[in-house]
Write a structure and sequence with these properties.
By secondary structure, the chain is mainly β. 12% of the residues lie in helices and 47% in strands. Strands 1, 2, 3, 4, 5, 6, 7, 8 and 9 form a 9-stranded antiparallel sheet that branches.
Amino acid sequence: MRKLVLLVFICLSACKKDASQNITAYNWVLETAVISPAKTYNGKQETNYMLMDPSTCLQHNFKITFSVDGTYGYSSTGPLCDLLGNDKLLKWTQEGDKIVLSNHNATIVANIIQKDKLVYENNFTENNSGVNYKVIYTYKAKSK
């Protein structure tokens, strides 16, 4: 009996979900958005970009959903976040553990790590200061 319990435990431990095999079966929920260098927010240096989002959409169950037709969309449960621009011009393709997200005027290459996390970075320059920033977004696969 002990051997059977041990065998079942080993099998369950080894059978970790692999969301990278079917990304459309999951909602990819934003876990973290880390900005560097840190920015001053509410009087202190902050690296949590989710707190700085003026729309607050990143703070309210922000997620990416991939459709089998090759399109994707963003959603959030925050106030006015249902106005996020989703249309058929948001396209995705998968190349192994890389997800290529294309939209109206940009292409983002995201990487799947640990088989259930999606990570990509966005670089921008702040107009008033000229400072270059990098934000690393990490999403976790959650069953639909």
